Protein: Putative transport protein
Organism: Mesobacillus selenatarsenatis
Amino acid sequence: MTGSLGFLLATVPFSAWIDLLGWRAAFFSAGIALCLSGILLYIVLVKKPRQLFHNESVTVKDETQRENISLILKRIVLNRQAWALFFCHFGVVGGYVGFISSWAVPYGMNMYDLTRSDASQLVMVGLIGALIGAPLTSWIASRLGTIKRPYVIVHFIILTSWSAFLLFKGNPPLFMLILLFFIIGFGFGASALTFAVVRQSFPIKESGLVSGFANTGGFLSAVLLPGIFGKVLDHFQSVSGSMTEGYSYGFIIPVIFSLIGLFGVSTIKEIRQPESAEPESSV
């Protein structure tokens, strides 16, 4: 959720910051803010805990070094649940991050004749959806007592949303485009459920590595989608000179990615908490 807030600040607010200070000063100030954030994180996460829990940290360090990390990695790679989470994150993250970060603004400018600032507002709509999606889907999952069911629904909605771009040949009405960006962003926010499944399915000593493994799926698709999308646009622009046709076929890529994500979330084996634990907690 906080990551989506950072994405949000990098759209219209950062564009206004650039207009005010210019490119060099805006990026320089952003770099200073990142450096200060890194120093603050080091103080809060490393230095302070060492001072407060010096003896305990030594004990924990000795215990964690007993497990061979290569054995843990081998177990993860051979684990069906880990691969299900990998493909799940591949589908829900890549289409959003890969398209939003690279092609959303050019898409708005080319297909709807929007200014760069107006097109970046479309990105902001998706990020607002992500901010709402993360806490809301987590709350729904906790109320239902299941993670898989709402997550499958979210994946299906994302697949339907990307398919809508194909249905309208890459050029849906503007009001519908805004709604689709919001829904896809909402689905991206729901990707936090991936890590909830990790914590539910794996022991603490393995959950960090499994989270990284699942997150790799998301980053992999986010890297693959912009390049493949660009190849499709270049092909149709050189063959027919039509950018519209290129976009209409380019949206096949996030649809395929979403299908992979739906397959992944469908194969997740959910481990539910025993019902007998509920009365004890209520007492």
